[in-house]
Amino acid sequence: MSRPEGTALRPRLERALAAWLPWQRWFGGKGRPVAGVEVEQLVELVDQRASGGPLGLLAVVAVRFADGGDAERYQVPIGVRTALPDRLAPAVLAGFDGCVVYDATGDAELNAVLLRLIGQRAVRGGVGFTPEPSFAGASKRGLVGRPIGAEQSNTSIVYGDRYILKLYRRVAAGLNPDLEAHRALRRARSRHIAPLLGSIEGEVGGEPATFGMLQAFAANAAEGWAMAMTSVRDLFADTDAAPDAAGADFAAEARRLGGAVAAVHADLARELGTGTADPRSVADDMLAHLEPALVAVPGLAPYADRLRAAFAGVGALRERVPVQRVHGDLHLGQVLRTPATWLLIDFEGEPAAPIAERTEPRSPLRDVAGVLRSLDYAAQHQLRLFHPTPELRRRARRWTAHNREAFTAGYAEAAGGDPAGRLLTAFELEKAVYEAVYETRNRPDWVDIPLRAVRRLLGEEDLDDR
Ligand SMILES: Nc1ncnc2c1ncn2[C@@H]1O[C@H](COP(=O)(O)OP(=O)(O)O)[C@@H](O)[C@H]1O
Ligand SMILES: O=P(O)(O)O[C@H]1O[C@H](CO)[C@@H](O[C@H]2O[C@H](CO)[C@@H](O)[C@H](O)[C@H]2O)[C@H](O)[C@H]1O
After folding, report:
1. Which of 174, 342, 394, 424 has the smallest CB count inside 10 Å?
2. Where do the Maltokinase N-terminal cap domain residues begin and end (predicted)?
């Protein structure tokens, strides 16, 4: 079999990637015309072709954009085979020289190699695979690695019901905030993260960078989003029930979740430090994010002046704002309820923000606002799935208020201070503006949910709610 790698592979791979990348869910440059793709690294991980298996490579590719803005780097595990099993057909990137080249994250054989390399503390072409002590001796025999969920910012591979390996798709110089936060929370012996078991680290642009993180898989866990959605659904279906009497009342869980978020904040503060920020700089930050959002989302235009005023109002607060490392993109899809406790996952921050910005100390109220927004999302999304009658709209509002109260009470109980007031409302507004941009780019038919929230948070009556 001929070798398609090296000088022959790169230009063809680059052309194929330029066409393929923009269609991937995790591609952050959506809407920006791609000017070119350069394969910066092509590391050989394994060559099993002698036994009829695949060649496994790890590519780091730089994407340049026609708008002249910053290039972005992505990680793409690559497989090369002479004959491709049918199940891998959707991952094909290119075919030449009698070989098929494909995105390897769906290839169980190559996924098994990644786990093995971590267990072996291997180094391949400058990429280091490092186990934590608790993983090094564990048996990995017979574990098949399958990617989960297409709708993610990265690609996570689950091995049996034991491990989950998250491959960061967008890679940048510096320690990934997710790995950094997990290391800090492990030092703090937090009960609210999945145990950290290993990492994959290399270099981009001559600086250290994180490619992957291995954790224990919480097999018997329910996602907060699914639990909340079920609770609202039950309340809508049982027209006689009050929010706390419906089949799946979520309030007790919302309260425990509040406690878990406060405990994680306390641990992050202890491990990574605290400070205070001038309220004017908090306001400037909100205003700086607002302007590009107004350009990206035409539906925000009617609220532009009131949003500017609400954010500027934060600058007038008398007290300095306590800041620390936070989760950064907390919502109900980022929390898992195990039989024992709530776990927080994905400390990477907002996928669209530059890495340096994501690790900046922020007010923990941003995370509180993230969960509050998510409670609203659960009720509003469930409304879209039912026929939204005035009665259901009333029920949606009651469900949200009831669970907001429970979550904030749980947070206050553990943190020793009630999260409320103008700053929290401003963070909710900031999050809703972020969501309006996110939905416009990724799920345009959802954009109404954050736009309605902006209206409500600005004190305007929702026309449908009368
Ligand atoms: N330790 C874990 N145990 C069980 N499921 C997990 C674990 N970590 C993540 N997941 C699942 O994988 C999904 C993707 O994880 P996440 O870290 O949010 O990745 P992404 O950055 O791609 O959004 C989550 O929505 C969750 O359902
Ligand atoms: O989980 P990610 O880090 O990829 O976060 C992004 O995608 C989320 C959607 O999957 C998005 O969350 C928004 O929708 C959720 C329901 O699907 C809702 O629970 C959240 O409150 C809402 O913000 C998130 O904003 C985005 O960064």
Report:
1. 394
2. 20-107
Q: Taking a C-beta distance cutoff of 8 angstroms, is the pair 221, 290 a contact?
A: no
In the DSSP assignment, the letter for residue 62 is: E
User: For residue 294, what are the CA distances in angstroms to 290, 305, 313?
Assistant: 6, 11, 19
| Model confidence at 138: pLDDT above 60 | yes
Tens-place pLDDT, residues 34-63:
999 999 999 999 999 888 889 999 999 999
Give the list of residues 6+ apart from residue 400 with CB closer than 8 angstroms, or none.
Answer: 375, 376, 379
State how far the Cα of 61 lies from the Cα of 22, in Å rounded to an integer: 13
Contact 347, 327 (CB under 8 A): yes
H or E stretch covering 232? helix 224-237
ipTM of the assembly? 0.97
Give residue 402 CA to ligand 1 midpoint distance, Å: 27
Tell me how far the alpha carbon of residue 336 lies from the centroid of ligand 1, in angstroms: 9
Q: How many whole angstroms from 333 Cα to the centroid of ligand 2?
A: 7
Domain positions in the chain are 6-216, 222-465
As for ligand 2, residues whose beta carbon falls within 6 Å of it are 153, 225, 329, 331-334, 346, 350-351, 373-374, 377, 435, 438
Across all residues in the chain, what is the average pLDDT? 92
pLDDT of residue 356: 80
Q: Please, are residues 436 and 454 in contact by the beta-carbon 8 Å criterion? A: yes
C-alpha 152/C-alpha 328 separation (Å) is: 16
Tokens 């972005």: give the residue. Answer: 72
What is the CATH class of 222-465? alpha beta
Q: Left if phi > 0, otherwise alpha if psi is -120 to 50, otherwise beta: which for 2?
A: beta
Mean pLDDT along residues 282-310: 97
In one-letter notation, the amino acid at residue 105 is T
CB-based contact 74:167 (threshold 8 Å): no
Q: What is the pTM of this model?
A: 0.92
CA–CA dist 273, 280 (Å, integer):
21
**C-alpha 393: how far from chain center:** 29
Going by pLDDT thresholds of 50, 70 and 90, the confidence category of residue 2 is: very low
Strands 92-96 and 99-103: antiparallel
pLDDT of residue 153: 84
Question: Over the stretch 317-358, which tens digit does the pLDDT of each residue have?
Answer: 999 999 999 999 999 999 999 999 999 999 998 777 777 888
